[in-house]
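Example record

Each entry pairs one chain with its bound ligand, magnesium ion.
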Amino acid sequence: MGVLMSQQQAAGSFWQGVLSQIRDRVTEQQFDTWFKTVEPTSCSEDTIELTVPNSFSREWLRKKYADLILGAAASANGGRRPTLRITVREGGDNEPDDVAVMTATAEANGARRGADQDADHHAVLTENVGAARPHPGSSSSTASALEAARGAWLNPEYRFDTFVVGSGNRLPYAASMAVSEKDQRVYNPLFVHGGVGLGKSHLLQAICAAWRARRPSARIRYVPCEQFINQFITAVEKGALESFRKRYREVDLLVVDDVQFLAGKERTQEEFFHTFNALHQRQQQIVVSADVSPREIPGLSERLVSRLRWGMVCEVEAPGYETRLDIVRQCADRLGQELPEEVSAFISESVRTNVREVEGAVTRVIGHAHLSGQEINIAEAREVLRDLVVERRRRVTIDHIAQAVTRHFEVKLAELQSKKRTQAVAVPRQICMFLARRLTGLSLEEIGGFFGGRDHSTVLYGVDRITARSRDDVALRDTVEQLATQALSVAGS
Ligand code: ADP
Ligand code: MG
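Structure tokens for the complex follow.
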């Protein structure tokens, strides 16, 4: 017994080390969804054994995160790569409790505390930790359940009044406002797409907050798509589809974030399709986000793509200089610190990728000044952000992509840019277009420009072709993946 305890403790602390590395490599949401419910049962130099709440988590960890876990374990293990065993906990499952239904009344929340069975359909506010159910299947996850409930999904800072509007996001902003303020269903569904860190989740959650303010008794549900999938699989396994359906169909507003994760998940897609229909028929509002437009999500069924395009599809684009400057100012303001004009300008100029990084840069500059007790000045800022500025130079460009592709297919760049349309040239060209869309921030027009002034519909067609073909053609999919990795490594060297 004593030995057992200490084994478990050792496993626990080894696992904590692994987790802390993983935390740096995944988004907070991924971490919360996939890693918080994992428990180590034994960890040795040779084997890591983990238990998870359901078979879907197991598959997902295996497929998507095994390398990451083993890499982290190896580095905590003096370079030796152990084997990984993942099992489903006995009596496992226990859906992560949902924090996603919101209503305005705190009393309602209070009244519902402890009313476990019902917590689902009523007031669970982000702040309302009280309504969180601990995971029955596991001892140590109570704390994480509470933490998740405290607002993993709904951030009180994500509101319309904290959203900086600029040329890149004016349309999605206006559409989100319209969805929140108009009582008619002006856009249903509203589909917002765009690259990471550009404000999609912020807008989606702002919609939830505005709905709540305007319609105190509305039933609102916000769910990251990964969690929707996870809960669906669990419901199937436990024969609890009925309550799953209730959860997602008996709402006035359903907001699903990052639906690109439905790619290749046929059954969940089908379920989502029926959820969509049920809500849409009753004129309930649906809002969805993804990293790309509906047509560009690989492996999404035609009928679902067409539903998702019924309402309004709009894109958030990377902010321009002026918008970045506004964001820098707002962020500094929130941190209670004024920045010298040239420092704001420097940050806005150097950090171009996305809003999250702009905010990160401001936080670093201000944090550094606080720690060192010095005034913020441009020299300091340059020093603090040196690595970010270097990183920018390393970002993937279309040239990196073209380089990897031309080498692989043994074609010349000039051919890709020519009018030639033979298979031997057209396929590599389409792959370039596809990867450029994925890996760079370039617009369809800009990509077309690179390929001898082709127009945006040609680029879209190319991207579509690769998306569609790689659905069934495993070899093609692998090649594309491999080329992506090569482009990234060319860019990084
Ligand atoms: P996405 O969901 O598109 O990956 P997020 O919504 O998570 O991006 O945004 C990343 C961060 O940047 C968040 O902290 C968010 O508040 C902030 N942000 C993004 N766009 C804006 C904006 N236009 N104004 C203010 N903050 C923004
Ligand atoms: Mg997001």
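The two ends are 52 Å apart (CA to CA).
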